[in-house]
Amino acid sequence: MADGERMRWWGWGTDAHAIELPPAAGELLAAELGIDPAARAERVELEDVRLPASALGGPARDALAAVAGLDAVDDGHAARVAHAAGRSYPDLLRLRSGALEHAPDAVVTPSSRAQLAPLLAECARHGVAVVPFGGGTSVVGGVEALRGAHRAAIALDLRGLDALVDVDPVSLTATAEAGLLGPELERRLAARGVTLGHFPQSFEHSTVGGWVATRSAGQASSGYGRIDELVEAVAAVTPAGALETLDVPATAAGPALRELVVGSEGVLGVIAEATLRVRPLPSERRYEGWSLPGFAAGAEALRALAQAGALPDVARLSDEDETRLTMALGSTGGVGERIGRGYLSLRGRSGGCLAFTGFEGTRDEVARRRGRAAAILRAHGAVALGQRPGRSWLRGRFAAPYLRDALLDRAVMVDTLETATTWANLQALYAAVGDALRAALRERGTAPAVMCHVSHVYRSGASLYFTFIAAQERGAELDQWRAAKRAATDAIVAAGGTITHHHAVGADHRDWLPAEIGPLGIELLRAAKDRLDPAGIMNPGKLLPG
Amino acid sequence: MADGERMRWWGWGTDAHAIELPPAAGELLAAELGIDPAARAERVELEDVRLPASALGGPARDALAAVAGLDAVDDGHAARVAHAAGRSYPDLLRLRSGALEHAPDAVVTPSSRAQLAPLLAECARHGVAVVPFGGGTSVVGGVEALRGAHRAAIALDLRGLDALVDVDPVSLTATAEAGLLGPELERRLAARGVTLGHFPQSFEHSTVGGWVATRSAGQASSGYGRIDELVEAVAAVTPAGALETLDVPATAAGPALRELVVGSEGVLGVIAEATLRVRPLPSERRYEGWSLPGFAAGAEALRALAQAGALPDVARLSDEDETRLTMALGSTGGVGERIGRGYLSLRGRSGGCLAFTGFEGTRDEVARRRGRAAAILRAHGAVALGQRPGRSWLRGRFAAPYLRDALLDRAVMVDTLETATTWANLQALYAAVGDALRAALRERGTAPAVMCHVSHVYRSGASLYFTFIAAQERGAELDQWRAAKRAATDAIVAAGGTITHHHAVGADHRDWLPAEIGPLGIELLRAAKDRLDPAGIMNPGKLLPG
Q: Most exposed of A5, A74, A176, A267 (fewest Cβ within 10 Å)?
C-alpha cells in the first residue's frame, strides 16, 4: 500500500481531501457560540511530538523480528506516532499538542496470517502487550497503546493481511483478510460484481478487521445490515489458539461464538479473516432529500417505514438544530448550499427537519422500493426536496472528519457520541442527552451547539447520533470534553439507552459497561478473556473496566 | 394450565389430536420398505414404567419446598415419568418400553420468577442437578434428567412462569416469561393485535424459554426471522446471579452476551424472560403449492427468491422422494389427497418437486410480495398448484409428530435430522447425507425411505431437513437408530454442514460439537459455564462433550 494512503499523523485522512472552513461557518460560530473568528489552535511538527522512550527490549524485539522479519519491526519515531492513537477528540488534542503519554514501543507489521500465532506467542513470552491496529480510526480510544501490566506494548498493524481470499458468487459471500481497507475491498468486490454495502463514516480509512472488532454499522445499514448481520463466519487468532466459526447461514449448535468475536475489540485475540455476506453491485442509486415537519414527526415516519418493511438503505433524519446548522453552514459537503433556506421557504415551510433516503439496487427494485417509501413519508408530512440534496449528501458522506480538523485549527471543540433505544423511549432519550450536553458545557462557560440525527433504523427502535460544538476551554480542553462526555453518558444510562450503538466501548466507555451488561456480564467477558488470553496481553485497558 | 394440555406421557400431544395411519400408508410401507402391515409394537402402561428410585434426599427436598411450596415438589411416579424425556425417537422408544434409565428425582414447579435464584442456590448447596423443562419437546435429548456428578437431579418445570409481562405497541416488542406455551402466547399477543410469527413444528407444546434456549427456527422464519433474530433482550437466572441484556434494537457495547444466552440449552442457567420483536397480526394469509422441475432446480428458485429480497414467510421445497411419498400417503394433513398424482400429470408433469409458499400481512403486502415471488418462481419453471394444497399444508403443519406415534405403533422407525449450509455446498451436502442414511440402514438389513426438504431459506444458503423411515430392527431398535444417526452426522461434518440448524445440540449431538466449533470453542463455552455455574448443576450431559 502506498504511504500516501495512510492518514496524516495529526488528523484525518490525507491533505488532498482537506476541507477549509467556509466563511459562513466562521461567522456562524462567532454569532452563536461566541467563538473568536481569529482564534487558532496550533499543532506541533512531527519531530516535536514527545513520546515515552521505547521500552521494547532487545530479546523481545529479536524474537518478533525472527517471526515477521527485521523490516517488520519499526520503533522509529514516525511509525510510533502514526500508531499512537485513534481519531477521537482526545486523541486529536493529544496529537496536536505533541504530548503523548502512551505510544506503542514498536510497530509490528506481519506480512501473512501465518505469522499471527507465533507473534502472539512471543509477545506472551516476553511480556509485551498487543494492540491490533487496522486503520487506526477508533473514536473511543480503542487503539491507544496501553502497556497494562506489561513491560512494553506493540501496535500490531494488520495492513499486510489484505487478501480477498475468495468470492462465492453462488452463495453471495466473500472472504476477506482483516487488513483490507474499505475502498480496496469494495474495488475488488466490484470487479466481481458484488458489494458489501458497509459504509461507516470512517470507510475510507478503516478495515474489515476493525469493523468486525467494533461491531460497526455503515450509513446504509438500514438496508444492507450492520456488520454483525453481514458476518457469516469469522476467524480469530488468540493467544490460546485459533477460533474459527463455520461458514453457514444459520445454526443452532449452541451459543453463537461468532457473536463473542464480533465486537471483541481486540481484547480476546486478533481477527484474521471474515466471511461476509455480499450483494450484487447495484446498478442504480437514488438519493434524495426530504423535509419532515419536526424531529418527533420525522421519527414517526421512520418508524412507519421500518415497521412496514419499507426501509431505504440509507435513512437519516436531522433534528431542528442540525437542520438549521446544515442549512446555514452548507457544511455537509455543500448540502446546505444546494438546499438553501430560500428553497424550503418556497416550499411553504420554514424550520422543519432535513432527512435523506437512499435506495440502491436494480432500476426496478429502486423504483418499487422508493415508491412505497415515498408514499409512507408523504403520509407523515414529508415534502420531497429532490435528488440534488441527496447527491450532495452522498458526495460529502465521508467529509465530516476533515471538517473536524478545520474546526480544531480554530480552537473549536467538536465531538460526537451515539446511542440507540426503542421507539417508545426515543424522544425521552433524545431530550435527556441533549439537555445533559447543553448543561454540562454551559456550566463550564462554553455554551454549545448540540445537534442530533437518526441514521440507523430498526423495527423496534433507532440510533441517535449527537454532535456538540463549543469554543475550546483553553488550557482545560480535556477536562471540558470529559465533563460533556461524562454528563451525556450518565444521561444515556439513566434513560435506558445503550452506551454505544456503533462506536464501540474502547477505553472511553468502559466505566459504563457494568451499568449496561451488569456485573455478571463483566465477569463472563473476563472469563472468556482469561481463557483465550491468559497472559492478558491483548489490548489492555479496553472494553473491560480496570 | 389444565392438565389436558400437557402431552401424553408416551408420545406426542393429546389423544384428541391423534392420527390414524391411512390405509394407503400401510400398503406403501409394505410395498416399499417390506414392513409387515400386521406388525405392532406395544407400549407399556404408565404404572409399569420402571424408574430409578428417587434419590432426592430429605434435606434437599425440604429446602426446595421451603422456597417453592410443598405442592411444588413432586416425586410421584406420574410427574417423574412426564418429565423423564423429550420427544426424540430414542426418547419414545424408551418411554414406550417402560425402561427409563434416567428420570428426574423430583419435579419442581416454581410459581414465580423470584423463586428461581433461591431454588438454584439450594440445588447447588445440596448437590442437585437442575434440568430446565418447558414443554419437554426436545428431539435431541435436551431434557433428559442426567445427574452428572451430583446425587440427584430435578426437572425444573417452568409452566408457572407464564406471564405476558408487557406489550409495547410502539416499538413492536413483547416481554414474555419463559414458561408460556406457543398457543397461549399467540392468543395473548393476538388480543393486542400482534404476533410473534414463530411456529416450529413443536409449537403447540413448546415454550418461549425452550425456543430461546435451543435457538429454534419456526416454519415462517424465512419471513419473520429465527428466534435469535426475534430476541431483543433476554433475562436469565444463573447459579452465579442474574444475566440480563438491555432492551435495545442494536448495540456495539462489546460482544453480544445475548447471543451467549440464546442457544445455551440450559447449561448456563435458566432463561426467565425474553423481550421479543413482534409484528402486526396479519389480516391476510396466502398459502399455495407449487411444482418445481426438480430439487436442484427448486433450490435455485429459492436462492433467486432469497437473493432478490423476495422471500415468502414460509418457503418449503420437498425433494423427489418426499414429494412422491407425500402424494402417495396424503400424509401431510391430506395434502397428497388434495393434490393427487392425477392433478400433477394433468399439469403436464409427473415427478417434480412439491413446494409451498406462504405470505402473511395486509392484503396489499401479500398481493405485492406474492406477485414478485410468483414471477421469480415461474421464471425457474414453477407451476402453480393453487391455494388448496397450501391450506392443506397449513392445516396439517403441526401433525407430523402424531404420525410418528402411529408409525411407532406399527414398529416403524421414523426420525428426522437437519443441517444447513451455503448454496454452493447445498447439493453436495444433500447427496452426502442421503447416501449415508441409505447406506447405514441398508447395511443393517432395513432398507429405508429417505426424504428431504428445504424449509429455512437465506441469502447465503438454506437448511436441509431429512426424514428417514425403515422397519424397526426388533430387539436392536436403539442400535439401529444410532447407526443411522452417526453415519448421517459424520457425513454432515465431513461435508461442511452444521450439525444442527434448529434442533440444538442436547445430548445427541454433543460428540460432534468439537468438530463444529473447535477445541478452543469448547473451552470457551466451558469457561463461561464455569463462571456462571461453578457447581456444575445446570443440565449435566448436554451441549458440552463429556
A: A5
